[in-house]
Amino acid sequence: MKTKIILLSLSLIALLAVSCGKEDSADVSKVVTFPEFVMEGEQYITIEAGEPFTDPGVKAYFDGQEVPVTVTGSVNTDLLKRQEIVYTAMGSVPGEISVSNSITRYVTVTVSDDIIVGDYTYATAAGVANPAKSMTISFNGMLGKYSATDLGNQGTPIPVTFDLVDGKFVMNPEVQDSPFGPFSVNSAVGEMTIVDGFIRFPFIFVSGTNTGYSGIGHWLKK
Predict the structure, then answer these.
(1) Which residues contact 157 (CB under 8 A, 6 or more apart)?
(2) Tens digit of pLDDT for each residue in 174-192?
(3) Beta bridge partners of 122
(4) pTM for this prediction
(5) Which of 86, 129, 186, 192 has CB 3.0 to 4.6 Å from 72, enough for a Cys bridge?
(6) What is d(CA 168, CA 175) in angstroms, rounded to the nearest whole number?
(7) Where are the domains of the chain?
(8) For residue 193, what are the β-bridge partners?
(9) Shortest CA distance to 47 belongs to which of 66, 9, 75?
């Protein structure tokens, strides 16, 4: 589908005062036009994260002739946000001023479903839910990056940011702050795992007054 986009429809009017002599003079109004665009596809696009994206492209015309288009920006389909591609074209008439114009395509990258993102309730090691305590995991800006409001088993929440790397869940950064002091994954007793909506998160405090204290947070997806 082609969408014709004409920007700056109000032409710039340049008033040129031309002197023809002592006895007569005239004001000459000149219309300055700008490049117009024909955009292939839609100006606003929404795609699923991880899907390939090919820029449909834009053509620009000035004074009835096609002119080159400069493209700025690209789309990272792992980045969960609205991204922009800017197209710029220039037109000029010999002996007169050059003018430029631009148009923007907006591409929003989103995820309609993810097995990790969602609400969780605290659970026992055997996977029995304890609805008295809950937390939420959301995307941390990009596909494969997550933010949990709490993964510890303490009275005060311990927020954690982590990545999914080659099928494994890794804290990023490896050491993070909490109300109880800096902590990391307690690799001595295992790694962080998420299997069928059940999270096991072994952690240990690595400095401060709670150095050496460890625990395991268990969570079950609602």
Answers:
(1) 135, 149, 150
(2) 999 999 999 999 999 999 9
(3) 130, 219
(4) 0.65
(5) 86
(6) 17
(7) 2-110, 118-221
(8) 200
(9) 75
